[in-house]
Amino acid sequence: MPDMVSIAQPIQQSFNPYTENGGTILAIAGADFSVIAGDTRQSEGYNIQTRYAPKVFRLTDKAVLAVNGFAADGNMFVKKVRQRLEWYRHAHAKDMPIRAIARLIQTMLYARRFFPYYVYNILGGIEEDGTGAVYSFDPVGSYEREACRAAGAAQSLVQPFLDNQIYFKNQTPAPGTSFPAHLPLQTVLSLVIDSFTSATERHIEVGDGLEIYVVVAKGSTSAQGLQNLRGVQELTATDDGERVFVVRRELKKD
Amino acid sequence: MSIMELNGGSVIAMVGKDCVAIAADMRLGNQALGISSKFERIFPVTDRIYLGLPGLATDVATLRERFRFRVNMYTIKEEREIQPETFAHLVSSTLYEHRFGPYFIEPVMAGISKTPSGAVKPFIAATDLIGCLNFAKDFVVAGTASTKLYGVAEGLWEPDLEPEDLFETISQTLLNATDRDAFSGWGCIVHIITKDKVVTRTLKGRMD
Amino acid sequence: METSFALTGKGYVIVAADTTSARSIVKMKVDEDKIKTLSPHLLMAYSGEPGDTVQFAEYVERNIRLYQIRNIYPLRPSAAASWIRRSLAESLRSRKPYSVNLLLGGYDTATFDPHLYWIDYLGTISEVPFAAHGYGAYFALSLLDRYHDPSASLEEGLATLKRCIDEVSKRLVVSPGKYKVKIVDKDGVREVEL
């Protein structure tokens, strides 16, 4: 029997507090609406943990937050943002405006600069002036207001497609015409569904289900076409005027 | 430092109605430094077969020479032009010969084959760097922008595109994908192969 | 650090290489000629691993010369470039590869036009209007993007080269002191002082 002392070696213990849970999120701003979408598959490596884990959350009637990356951090982060929004409501008797939520998210993320929430955030909704807004963040709080953004596992598949179809990159308008700065809701919804079916086709971490949140500004006509859409549900909670809808669709499960 | 990403570059091929298209960017780089914006990585094999060679630039040149030699030998011995399907297997076996010390290239090929009845059949294929063949029915991609190419192509491509529409589709796919890839871009070249002619166009795009 | 530049112009190629030969932090020599004349209308600037450079350059030089003796005519620039590239590519997958980077400038006496090839130790080849190797490339290439003109006269070409050399001297910490500058055109090869 070998001498126990001679084979004994120091063992390096380590614990990795992070993991990556796949999935993809996407948001597009319209003139008076905003669309925020995410798939519902949650995976770890080649293992699917669940086919329905929402990544997109209604914060207020004018703000929806999508979180992608490490799911545990994401859920905790949404919980903390919602808590701060509730405190704001109690203090000011109104919902926090979206640009203020964006700045709040920055400070909350940067507060954890040296032990970050391992999540990419995309915040979509309606600005106080009634325009559609999308804010995108990195894990430590760098943020920017944009017209469209994809994040997560299939970001590299979806973002160049959006550059082409939303920003009309590499396209030239017909003589005497120009490209629209904002697309109508129907077009945006079609592009979102196309993006996710494409990503599902080519990326193993994307699929199962799709949740598309639509935030519509006060008095906007965009809400009309939405009511008789397949799989739509209204989530509006207040009578401020802004309305929130969610459209649920199936994605391939293989 | 990945060998496959040392020089950068991407290639894509697509099937249309009685036509195929193959396109690539023209950047040659050394990691982040751009060396040339006129680097060719697509080569004609016969009048109807084109071969794209994204990957390590030294192997682009070596494999081009090697395939020219082997196709010439085939033509002399068989006294006929090589068919796209046969050529794909030639590519595959040439790469697999170097299974444990490979050429760092992921070839993409496009061609048109004539069936015995006289009809034309579009053909595209790609392999990995050790020659595993992928005969796709729609499109194939390779290179540093491959993930981006997959995403855009999956969104834009549709079956039975006419040559001019196929040109627009492959061009938009390549342009928008390479614009999101730091190692690809710096000019693009597109070949549209139909049964009786090949149209080659260079594209004007971003040069950053 | 070793640096070499080359640029084409109207009927000529200018090739420049620094003249320092360094070992670690010590300059061993300051008048080393690192541009070989391979044939009457062909220049090759070489840099890289000390030992490999001269060995490989002389191997190329002798083989190009041998071809000329056997065939009366020398190899044209594109043919010479292909042969040299192939030598490096074969060496790359050998037991001890040559670690040599090259700039090959030549004047094609059959078509009356200048050619310049950028070649690295892997066997990567590219015909370019201007080229550089070493840390100097990071400064020179952007200047050449701005100032290079393929139809420029020799004086203008040399002025552009001077810009590159001056910029490298000004901004590169480990800049070389002196350069040897050679020109190849219809009259053959000659050396010039800047």
TrEMBL record, chain A:
It comes from the Eukaryota. One of its GO terms (cellular component) is proteasome core complex, beta-subunit complex. It is found in: Cytoplasm; Nucleus. It holds the Pfam family Proteasome. Keywords: Cytoplasm, Nucleus, Proteasome. The keyword Ribonucleoprotein does not apply. Its main location: cytoplasm. GO terms for biological process: proteolysis involved in protein catabolic process. Component of the proteasome complex. The 26S proteasome consists of a 20S proteasome core and two 19S regulatory subunits. The 20S proteasome core is composed of 28 subunits that are arranged in four stacked rings, resulting in a barrel-shaped structure. The two end rings are each formed by seven alpha subunits, and the two central rings are each formed by seven beta subunits. The catalytic chamber with the active sites is on the inside of the barrel. Belongs to the peptidase T1B family. Component of the proteasome, a multicatalytic proteinase complex which is characterized by its ability to cleave peptides with Arg, Phe, Tyr, Leu, and Glu adjacent to the leaving group at neutral or slightly basic pH. The proteasome has an ATP-dependent proteolytic activity. This is Proteasome subunit beta.
From TrEMBL, chain B:
GO terms for biological process: proteasome-mediated ubiquitin-dependent protein catabolic process. It holds the Pfam family Proteasome. InterPro entries: Ntn_hydrolases_N, Proteasome_beta_3, Proteasome_bsu_CS, Proteasome_sua/b, Proteasome_suB-type. Coiled coil: none annotated. SUPFAM superfamilies: N-terminal nucleophile aminohydrolases (Ntn hydrolases). Keywords: Cytoplasm, Nucleus, Proteasome. Gene3D superfamilies: Glutamine Phosphoribosylpyrophosphate, subunit 1, domain 1. It is found in: Cytoplasm; Nucleus. Its main location: cytoplasm. GO terms for cellular component: cytoplasm; nucleus; proteasome core complex, beta-subunit complex. Belongs to the peptidase T1B family. Component of the proteasome complex. The 26S proteasome consists of a 20S proteasome core and two 19S regulatory subunits. The 20S proteasome core is composed of 28 subunits that are arranged in four stacked rings, resulting in a barrel-shaped structure. The two end rings are each formed by seven alpha subunits, and the two central rings are each formed by seven beta subunits. The catalytic chamber with the active sites is on the inside of the barrel. Component of the proteasome, a multicatalytic proteinase complex which is characterized by its ability to cleave peptides with Arg, Phe, Tyr, Leu, and Glu adjacent to the leaving group at neutral or slightly basic pH. The proteasome has an ATP-dependent proteolytic activity. This is Proteasome subunit beta. It comes from Crucibulum laeve.
From TrEMBL, chain C:
InterPro entries: Ntn_hydrolases_N, Proteasome_alpha, Proteasome_beta2, Proteasome_bsu_CS, Proteasome_sua/b, Proteasome_suB-type. Keywords: Cytoplasm, Nucleus, Proteasome. It is found in: Cytoplasm; Nucleus. The keyword rRNA-binding does not apply. The 26S proteasome consists of a 20S proteasome core and two 19S regulatory subunits. The 20S proteasome core is composed of 28 subunits that are arranged in four stacked rings, resulting in a barrel-shaped structure. The two end rings are each formed by seven alpha subunits, and the two central rings are each formed by seven beta subunits. The catalytic chamber with the active sites is on the inside of the barrel. Component of the proteasome complex. Component of the proteasome, a multicatalytic proteinase complex which is characterized by its ability to cleave peptides with Arg, Phe, Tyr, Leu, and Glu adjacent to the leaving group at neutral or slightly basic pH. The proteasome has an ATP-dependent proteolytic activity. Signal peptide: none annotated. One of its GO terms (cellular component) is nucleus. Its main location: cytoplasm. The keyword Nucleus applies. It holds the Pfam family Proteasome. This is Proteasome subunit beta. Belongs to the peptidase T1B family. GO terms for biological process: proteasomal protein catabolic process.
